[in-house]
Amino acid sequence: MSAEPSVITIDGPAASGKSSIARLVAERLGRIYVNTGNMYRAMTWAVLEAGVDPKDTDAVRAAAAGIVIESSVVDGKTKVAISGRTPTDAELNSDPVNRAVSLIARVDEVRDRLVADQRALASIGPLVMEGRDIGSVVFPDSPHKIYVDASEEVRASRRGAQGLSDQIAERDRIDKQRKNSPLVIPAGAIVIDNSHITLDQAVDQVIAGLQLS
Ligand code: CDP
Ligand code: CDP
Question: Does ligand 2 lie within 6 Å of residue 168's CB atom?
Answer without folding.
Answer: no
